[in-house]
Design goal:
With 439 residues, the protein is α/β, with parallel strands linked by helices. It has helices at residues 4-17, 21-24, 50-66, 82-91, 106-111, 119-124, 162-168, 179-193, 206-215, 234-249, 255-258, 286-293, 329-341, 343-349, 359-365, 371-383, 398-414, 420-435, and strands at 40-47, 70-77, 98-101, 141-142, 145-146, 149-150, 153-154, 156-160, 198-201, 275-282, 298-300, 315-316, 319-322. This is ABC transporter substrate-binding protein.
C-alpha cells in the first residue's frame, strides 16, 4: 500500500510536468501524421496480473505483424508503484506514448495537460467508434473532450464461492440482500466452515464507501470539487461500523489473513478457500480469480440499503490514453483503435480488462467465452438493473484524499487503532484541506 508521502511526491512531480508540455507536445494531433512506411517506435505501459501482461503482449505482437513499420516497447508492472513511476516520467518529459489510465486519476492527468485530446482523431477517422454506444465513452470525457478510451466496462461486485456456501448450508446472496443480511450471512458461514475459514474478507475501502454514499443519495465530492459532497459524518461512521462489527464477531477474516495479499490475486483468501466471500472487487477480476482458484466462483451485486437508492454504476474498467508528451500521437491512437475494434485482438484479450465497448466485438466473443467470461458479461447485464448514472470524474486532489483514506482510515479500522467516529472526523479534516485548493 502506498504511503501518503508517495502521494505528495506524485502530485508534486505531476505539477512539475506541466511546464515541460510545450516542448514535448505532439505534432500528430494537429494533423501531421507519420509518413507511410516510416519506422515508428511507441512506448506503452500498463498494470495488472501476469495473465494481463501475457495477453497484452500477444496483441502487441499481432499489431506489429499487421503493421511492420511499428514497434511497441512494453513496460509492465503491478498496481503498486505504477502511478509514482508515471509521475516521475511526466516530470522528466518522458511519459510513454500509450498509458493505461484509471478513472480516479483521469482528472489529475487531463487537468494537468498530460493527456492528448482524442477528438481530432475521431474526426479524422483514426478512432472509429461506429459500433460503440456513447455511454461507454462518457467516462473518459472532461468538458466534452475525450482523453481516455474505455478498454473494458465493468462494475463493482461481490464475489463468492458457491461450494463453501453449500458446505456451510447457507443460501447464496440474491440481488436485493441488505447490509444486515451480509453480516448475518458472514456469521453463519464462519460458524459452519470451521477453524481458520471465515465468512468474508471485509472491506472498509473508499470505493465501497462511494457505493454506500450513492445508496444514500449523495456523493463523496461536491459538484465543483471544492469540498465533500455529504454533510452528515454519521454516514461514514455507519459504514465503518459495519466492518468493525463483522471483524469483532468473527464473521470476517482478521486483517493478518488478507492485508499481506494486497492486489496479488494468487494470495487472496477466497482463492485459497480461507473465505467464502470477498466484498469489494470489480467484475473483470473474475477471470484472474477463477484461474488462480482453479474452481468456479460467482458474482452478485453489492448489498442494498433498505429504502435507499441504487448504488451501482457501469464503470470504465481501465482506459488507454495517449500522453501529450508523445511525439507519435496519431500512431498511438491507431493502436487504441486496433484494441477497440479488431476481432482477432479481442479474441486474445478475451475481455480480461472488462466487457469490450464495441457491440460488434461483444457479439463476436460471447459464444466462445470461458465460463468466467460469460459470468462477467452476464453480470454487466444484471447490474444495469441496479445501476444509475455514473458520477463526474473525481476532482483534482482526489487521489491524495483516497490514498489517505486507504492508509490512515481503512487500515486503522482493520487493526482497531481508531474508532469509526474518530475516523470520520479525521477524514473530513484531511479531505477539506486538500479540496480547498479547488476553490
Amino acid at each position: 500500500m502506498k504511503m501518503i508521502k508517495d502521494r505528495l511526491v506524485l502530485l508534486l512531480v505531476i505539477g512539475m510536468a506541466v511546464g515541460l508540455l510545450s516542448a514535448c507536445a505532439s505534432d500528430d494531433a494537429s494533423g501531421e501524421g507519420e509518413k507511410e512506411g516510416e519506422k515508428v517506435t511507441l512506448r506503452m505501459t500498463w498494470w495488472g496480473s501476469q495473465e494481463r501482461h501475457d495477453r497484452t503482449q500477444k496483441v502487441i505482437d499481432l499489431y506489429e505483424e499487421k503493421n511492420p513499420n511499428v514497434e511497441i516497447s512494453a513496460q509492465f508492472s503491478g498496481w503498486d508503484g505504477y502511478w509514482n513511476k508515471l509521475a516521475t516520467q511526466a516530470a522528466g518529459g518522458n511519459l510513454p506514448d500509450i498509458i493505461q489510465m484509471d478513472y480516479k486519476y483521469l482528472s489529475e492527468y487531463a487537468g494537468n495537460g498530460l493527456l492528448e485530446n482524442l477528438n481530432p482523431f475521431i474526426d479524422s477517422g483514426v478512432l472509429n467508434f461506429d459500433d460503440v454506444d456513447p455511454l461507454y465513452l462518457d467516462g473518459g470525457k472532461l468538458e466534452d473532450k475525450l482523453y481516455a478510451v474505455n478498454i473494458g466496462a465493468n462494475a463493482h461486485t461481490l464475489v463468492y464461492d458457491p461450494s463453501l456456501f453449500e458446505k456451510a448450508g447457507v443460501e447464496v446472496p440474491e440481488p436485493g440482500y441488505t447490509w444486515t443480511d451480509l453480516k448475518e450471512m458472514g456469521q453463519k458461514l464462519s460458524d459452519q466452515l470451521g477453524e481458520g475459514v471465515y465468512g468474508m474478507q471485509p472491506n472498509a475501502g473508499i470505493m465501497r464507501f462511494k457505493h454506500y454514499l450513492r445508496e444514500n443519495g449523495v456523493w463523496l465530492y461536491n459538484e465543483d470539487g471544492s469540498g465533500l459532497g455529504y454533510e452528515n459524518d454519521q454516514l461514514l461512521v455507519d459504514y465503518l461500523q459495519h466492518t468493525v462489527d463483522v471483524l469483532e464477531s468473527g464473521a470476517a477474516a482478521p486483517p493478518e489473513l488478507f492485508m499481506s495479499a494486497g492486489t496479488n490475486v494468487e494470495q487472496m483468501p477466497i482463492v485459497n478457500e480461507k473465505t467464502a466471500v470477498i466484498t469489494d472487487l470489480h467484475s473483470n477480476q473474475i477471470l484472474a480469480l477463477e484461474q488462480a482458484a482453479g474452481r468456479p466462483l460467482a458474482l452478485t451485486i453489492q448489498p442494498m440499503l433498505e429504502g435507499g437508492e441504487l448504488g451501482h454504476y457501469v464503470k470504465p474498467g481501465q482506459f488507454f490514453s495517449v500522453t501529450s508528451q508523445s511525439e507519435k500521437a496519431e500512431e498511438a491512437a491507431k493502436f487504441i483503435d486496433f484494441v477497440t475494434n479488431d476481432l482477432e485482438a479481442n479474441e486474445i484479450l478475451n475481455a480480461e480488462r472488462g466487457v469490450p465497448i464495441s457491440s460488434k466485438v461483444r457479439e463476436h466473443l460471447k459464444p466462445n467465452l470461458s465460463d468466467a467470461g460469460k459470468k462477467m458479461f452476464d453480470y454487466l447485464e444484471l447490474v444495469e438493473d441496479y445501476a444509475s448514472e455514473i458520477n463526474e470524474p473525481d476532482p483534482q486532489g482526489a487521489t491524495e484524499i483516497e490514498d489517505f483514506f486507504e492508509t490512515q482510515i481503512e487500515e486503522a479500522i482493520y487493526y482497531g487503532k481508531i474508532t469509526p467516529e474518530e475516523a470520520a472526523a479525521l477524514f473530513r479534516k484531511k479531505a477539506e484541506e486538500v479540496l480547498a485548493n479547488n476553490q
